[in-house]
Amino acid sequence: MPLSSAEIASALATIVGADAVVSDTAKMGAYLNEPRKRFHKTAAAVVTPPSVEALQAVVRWANENHVGLIPQGGNTGLVGAQVPLFGTEVIVSLARLDRIRSIDTAAGVMTAEAGVILENAHRAAEAEGAMFPLWLASQGSARIGGVLSSNAGGVNVLAYGNARELTMGVEAVLADGRLYQGLNALKKDNTGYDLKDLLVGAEGTLGIITAATLKIFPLPEDHETALVNVASPEAALDVFQLMRQRLSSRLNAFELIPHIGLDFQLRHGMLDADPTASPSPWYALIEVTRMAGTEPGALQSALEATFEKSLISDAVIAESLADRTRMWAFREQMSECQSKEGASIKHDVSVPIAAVPALISEGSAAAERLSPGIRPVPFGHMGDGNIHFNFSQPAGADPKAFMSQYDEALHEVIYDVVLKLGGSVSAEHGIGQLKTDLLKQVKDPVALEMMRAIKTALDPNGILNPGKMLGFEPS
Amino acid sequence: MPLSSAEIASALATIVGADAVVSDTAKMGAYLNEPRKRFHKTAAAVVTPPSVEALQAVVRWANENHVGLIPQGGNTGLVGAQVPLFGTEVIVSLARLDRIRSIDTAAGVMTAEAGVILENAHRAAEAEGAMFPLWLASQGSARIGGVLSSNAGGVNVLAYGNARELTMGVEAVLADGRLYQGLNALKKDNTGYDLKDLLVGAEGTLGIITAATLKIFPLPEDHETALVNVASPEAALDVFQLMRQRLSSRLNAFELIPHIGLDFQLRHGMLDADPTASPSPWYALIEVTRMAGTEPGALQSALEATFEKSLISDAVIAESLADRTRMWAFREQMSECQSKEGASIKHDVSVPIAAVPALISEGSAAAERLSPGIRPVPFGHMGDGNIHFNFSQPAGADPKAFMSQYDEALHEVIYDVVLKLGGSVSAEHGIGQLKTDLLKQVKDPVALEMMRAIKTALDPNGILNPGKMLGFEPS
Lengths: 475, 475
Hints:
Chain A is α+β, with helices and mostly antiparallel strands. Among the domains of chain A are: 100-218, 2-Layer Sandwich (Uridine Diphospho-n-acetylenolpyruvylglucosamine Reductase, domain 3); 222-335, 2-Layer Sandwich (Alpha-Beta Plaits); 341-420, 2-Layer Sandwich (Alpha-Beta Plaits), CATH 3.30.70.
């Protein structure tokens, strides 16, 4: 006989105190309302444990009583992993575990609890002259636990890696309430299986991350940033390869932007000036770091080489912080500018880097066949093969009709192209509840079975974020 | 009723053909004789499958018949993971799966089968103007499958990462003979649990790796190498931090070497000339990469800064390939030079980087208390916190007596110091059969239980490298 919401809330209040439990649905808005506005189930309760020990007690109780728990950070996730699927789960907010436990710039590590807001992690590192190089649009709200559970990326994956690569160790509460203590500042440690990389990116289904040891890096003294004119995604790829050859890991960012993005942003007054050198069908935003004690000019020198090879036709290098800020605004406003042009259908996909031009051309052609006049707006992390392959409705179309007619059909068409090119249907955002069916369709069945076996082994009662990611529960 | 060796060999011959089975113990030497000369059990048979499908058939049969399988690459492992523990296992050599399946320098990936010799992987990348930056002393024999199964490191982990970090995806035969097809050239792919990082470093206990997609990098145009005089490990640590601050990931290597190593090597004629600038109690071998199109002098400039801060007293920068070769020989001959000075006791340990000076001073003091006159010879990857903390016998002592009296006692003393400093008792070499008991003693019990649960889930009959690493079998 499953417990009622009232029984659940009451039991939790006994464990962590009534002030750490939200039982009134009317007060749960901040925890239930997710960014996509797609998922609307309620929760049995929300609990905000003030400590790791309190969280362990909650999980032990939930495991004994077969109550589903949904770990939540900043509620910024885009696939509904952090909000209810069934309506009977308890949301566990990690927000009160918000301490920076330690920073050691010499060792290049910072230990932060799961509830630390990403932007605060940045500030803590900068206060010590270092940086935690993972930047997301949502960093003012996203918290470390969620960033790691979704293996978030960002524009600097090219130089510094994604969340998994930036995490050295984690501490996590397991399904039975025991604490896995893997906070590890060791770069070399071959004493058993890699549990850290299993827990990171598991979307809260194998353990609730409570703290992590993160890599921090020396602050560059400066950045060199340019907006470069390229004729096509193929040309952009050639430029990327030359940049990588010459600059190696000083290459901080390589972002592809289509001209339509500039149109949209200028038309709607989103830029104080045109950041580009001159009109071009495509642009590449390129950035290089410069460390203290090294000479400036590496980017300029590399651009001259691309110009000599006729890979680019024009370029502008940022000469001031205002220039650099404007160039990055041009890139960061790409999603927002689409919303000013009606409805849009989005895809978070990746392909092998060399297949990015094919993804864009074949995907755009397929979309045009499906919906004549549809406006492709592909942009993003070309150096990672991760393109935000978005489509704006035809100009003048009815937004609701467009979405209801084409949303699913276009997803199918684009995912077909992606899979044919050996790509991923979820490059950054994860599976959550949005893509559980899709995962079952497209993922290698042997891999799915391994994952189910691991889930069953580590969470036999299926209480950790039930139904998310694998869309499967052990019991 | 377990099968006899004859029955096993016969069954295998039926599956893969008699020419792929070695059943005569007298002909198994190459597979049984491991580098440490510590493990002497025989095998029921050795099988050399010519293809992935043949290997799958072998594993299916072994799983149905409860026969233990030991995957083996180049037989260079140092903890006995690749040789029998019980004497009834079948060694499965991956040597015949030795193709480079593909190289794509634009995408920065190379797919190599498990039997590819590491040195051949280097050559294949170099033929395309790229490099696979994982260098081991054993690279002329070590094979990719073993390199990955042990998560091997090397001197360039500082700049490029260890085997796990250099692997993008793997293909592996699972315990039931099914093929996990995770060869993945995608940098960003959030579609499920990270199975790749679970299989890498699992020492063949969760799956038999048959191929891997490896990261390759643009070849640097040049290296800048220096041998620097430092007063102490503490001073070396300060130098390391300054180097890292200025050079970031262009810092290719930072190796600590004690003066006693120079003594040993010069005394035994192992160097054609003294590679150092002048006498010093400690040396740091520092190397920086220079990419095409960038200015030389970054190392010199950084060294000048260390000199101004009085962190170093003298230095010599390599001016020729001969200089560079001699400096690296000085480092690479450290293990060998000890063997010319009698018996030595070795430890493959790591601590947080900032604790390296404490490891060396406390470990040396403890060793001296245990065995007066013992000669500490600590050297290695300071930038990773991984010191090969070796001890040469007192001059003139009887080698056999020294080893029998102090081998275990010194391990205990040094591991105590390592664990107290938050370190690892196996930084690089893994657990195999050498350190199974030690792992059970020192590892977090919750972590061990998670590992056993995962092992049971993925290999319920316990046929994959039984008894290795966890020293535990499911059935």
